Amino acid sequence: MSGADNQGANGAGEREQLALRVREHIIRMATDGGCFIGASLSCADVIVHLYTKVLDVAPDRLDDEGRDYFFLSKGHDVPALYGTLAELGFMAKERLSNHLSVDDHLYWHPNRKIPGVEFHSGSLGHLLGVSMGVATDIKLRGGDNKVYVMLGDGECNEGSVWEAALVAGAHELDNLVVVVDRNEFQANIRTEELIPLEPLQTKWQAMGWHTRRCDGHDFAALDEAFTDLPFDQGAPSIVICDTVRGKGLPSIEKRADRWFVNFTSDEVAQLLEELHGQAQAQLTSEALHVR
Amino acid sequence: MTPMSYQDTLEALCAEDDRIVVMTAENRAAIRGLPSKLGPRFIDVGICEQTMIGMAAGLALRGRVPFVHALSVFLTMRAFEFIRTDLGIAGLKALIVGGVPGFLSDGNGPTHQAIEDIALMRGIPGMHVFCPADDQDLVEAIPLLTKTDQACYIRYFDGPSTVTHRAPVEVGKAETLTEGDDIAILSLGFLLKETAVAQKLLAERGHATRLLNMRFVSPLDAGAVRDAAKTCKLVVCVEDHFKRGGLYSAVIEQLADEGIHGNVRSIALDQKWFAPGRLPEVLDNEGFTGQKLAQRIETLFEETV
């Protein structure tokens, strides 16, 4: 939690300020090529919470095998991670302006050339297995550090997620914590309209996981949800965080057609004002209609 | 002399190298004795090939050297994207041990026929592909492959040797078993038993025949391939793999890259799965017994030289 100490971001108010700055970064990445803004905004508070209150990791401890690991399995929301890592000193904030430059490594999905990114992702359903390998090695070495992996709710369509969930339960990986960004959307449709996931907790419980569920935008609720890990000795833990796609920007919140966006610079300026409580942006760029 | 078994070799390596972990997707045929010996370093994930590869990547990320085991067909195809994405993109090393590849799936039928496995594995940047001809090749290679930096797909075969080996296993090197400048047989994996018979028959019929035990498709022994194509009137790649993407493809790509025009031909499975059955009958039916290979190669020689 030295990242939190470095920033003094211990109270909910400070985390809210940090999350606001992360959202500003996300919005600035949503132009000149664009990004997956909806999922980035939905998980931003959870990622800020993890890096300031939960994860035992810091910019100067990225080679420490005793650090906690965070794996972003739903890689398309990486602007939230880029923003958090930059704010917490894992990389220079100026570097964010290199988003989508072929001369840097900040593209639409994460990779290990970004300090603090533990593994590349983008193809859904991969990092639960990878994180289980790390968790297994930590157990083999008798370590007490933990492994956190964020999944999308849409990602929970992938068979490899459930295959891995079954194995993690069977292997009693109680140093493993899954965090689901339950923003209720997958790409261009609500999850429950396509492949319903509920009751989601029950499904994970059936695989041998100990589950909690909380409001993923309420830092007090997140504080409560992430205490006393593992929730149960001998079982992996999962926190399902209920979130809102596009959180912080009423003009795109819960909108299926604002999944991936490539805004004009004028729209970005308006959205930054909207983020700070000003009038809603007048969006003119084309929305993404898949269905 | 009977070499150490594969699992005894792995056990001995585990004792001297604590990086090694042994994993399986509930396929213990080659490693039945290891769970009690390796304790928590033996990891069985059940019939979950994708999860096994993901976990192997995570273990490799922490400095382990995982040996993963499953049937070739499920390992290289069900889990292909995981091998390519989790191991390949990250440049992480695992030894990917595929059981009953090629004709060795004998009576299982096409669902179990790994005859595009080499094409898939050699398509991954940095991935080595090793096809041992017998237990000696296999066991000799394991310590070497543990020490390299690259991931390697091992087309598992641990049957007894029927030839007297002339060269130790070296990564990326073929073994020349007989010399000759009329015909070169580039032999893949366990088919060496048959190609050695074919070589003898061809030699008896007056064709000076060079027999190469290729051992590796990737990295390919470019020198041995180049020399065969330049020196011999006919080069025949013999493999229990689709014609497209395997040894023959690797050989002609290499020669084309070098601008060498040799008389290179293929004996493989050309756009078809093979008829399942008992292995000797499969070999006979598909024309891969020593006798039939000699006939097919002689016909190719008569037609093309």
Q: How would you describe what is shown here?
A:
The complex is a heterodimer of chains A (291) and B (305). Chain A is α/β, with parallel strands linked by helices. Chain A is built from ten helices and seven strands. In chain A, the strands form two sheets. Chain A has a five-stranded parallel sheet, with helices on both faces. In chain A, helix 6 links the parallel strand 2 and strand 3 (176-182). In chain A, helix 2 (12-28) runs antiparallel to helix 3 and helix 2 (12-28) packs antiparallel against helix 10. In chain A, 53% of the residues are buried. Chain B is an alpha/beta fold. Chain B has twelve helices and twelve strands. Chain B has helices spanning 6-16, 34-38, 49-61, 72-78, 80-88, 117-122, 135-147, 192-204, 222-231, 247-257, 279-286, 290-304; strands at 20-24, 42-44, 65-71, 95-99, 128-130, 152-155, 175-178, 183-187, 209-213, 216-218, 234-242, 264-269. A seven-stranded mixed sheet of chain B has the order 2-1-3-4-6-5-10, sandwiched between helices. In chain B, helix 8 links the parallel strand 8 (183-187) and strand 9 (209-213). The longest helix of chain B has 15 residues, at 290-304. The chains are: A alpha/beta (291), B alpha/beta (305).
What general outline of chain B do the C-alpha atoms trace? Answer: globular
Please, how many helices of chain A?
10
What level of helicity do the residues of chain B show? Answer: 25-40%
How many structural units, i.e. domains of chain A?
1
Content of β-strand of chain A: 5-15%
CATH fold title of the largest domain in chain B: Rossmann fold
CATH fold title of chain A: Rossmann fold
Structural features:
heterodimer, A: 291 residues, alpha/beta, Rossmann fold, five-stranded parallel beta sheet, two-stranded antiparallel ribbon, 7 strands, disordered N terminus, B: 305 residues, 2 domains, seven-stranded mixed beta sheet, five-stranded mixed beta sheet, 19% strand
